[in-house]
Known about the structure:
The protein is of the alpha+beta class. Helices cover about 20% and strands about 40% of the residues. The chain has 2 domains: about 5-145 and about 160-170, CATH 2.40.50; about 190-320, Immunoglobulin-like (Sandwich). The strands form 2 sheets. It has a 9-stranded antiparallel sheet, sandwiched between helices. A 7-stranded antiparallel sheet has the order 1-2-7-6-3-4-5. Helix 4 (about 275-285) packs antiparallel against helix 5 (about 310-320).
Amino acid sequence: MPRRRILLSFALTFGLSMSTPLFGQASAEPRFTLDASGRKIVAVTNLPTASGCQPATGTGRIVERQFEKGQLRGVMFREPPYDDAYINLPDAYQFRNKATHARTRAVFDDLLREGNEVRLGMVACGAAGRVVKLTSIALIARASAPVSPSAASPSPAAPPAEPMPAPATSAPPASSTPATSAAAAADDEASWDVSTYQRNLKLGIADGNHFTTLMLDCVLGSGRVKMLVDDPKGRYRRGSTQPFRVSAGQAIALLSGTALFSDMNSEMQIEANVSLSQLRGVLSEIARQRQFVITTPGGTQPVDVKGADKAIPTFLSSCAIAG
């Protein structure tokens, strides 16, 4: 499954329709919990987060780790029956000091080993949960055996308390042929996409592994839509009411919503709750590949309509009031 769909599915899975924001904990001091022996850390909470994000929790297994310049940067998290989700670790600058960052990194390396069963706290930020970031870890069970990248050359297992993994513990991504690389690149081009989970439906312009510019969220058969519109040049107070306009072809919708600020993306966004009937004309024109424009206090944004002819009809029919 393409990574973009993995993350979008994850965002739906963990309740991004929640409306209460979790405000930031910049430079928070992590809190560590020891096991019964008092020797090993088995949980960490109060990790730094960003404002304008939605909280979530999940219980599952670490299946892959990603390193950058020798440091663990993120993990792939598996919670059946859902798709694997990529979780980012907090950045160094978010910690109070270098000593706290170093200690927390060592804990990450130990608790987030491949195969470990864990309960994770996290936040998803931006339109449709663009970036998912770790906020807490509780170890449930360690992997029954070390993950070995090669059965052909056995080597002694690293002790669990080792602060940094051997480079081989994180298998590099499988190499792809030119054909598969081209297919992946084509799949990651920005285009309209619709994603469904249980009774929720999301529509927007998918760019790589997140929605960009615009996201519409609807409970199936409700006839109601929550819109999230990016306004990267907007300069106004968070929580204020801001007008915006969406137009395509001869159709236009004049709307207003609440201003949000995404610390993760460092830009303003406007959230509005509207009826599907207010948007149907504009969406129908976009599906016909008419020019689509969003006008916000920050300016005018022409929006690509690639893929809208397939995604929008699905959204309209599924979101419309049943009966």
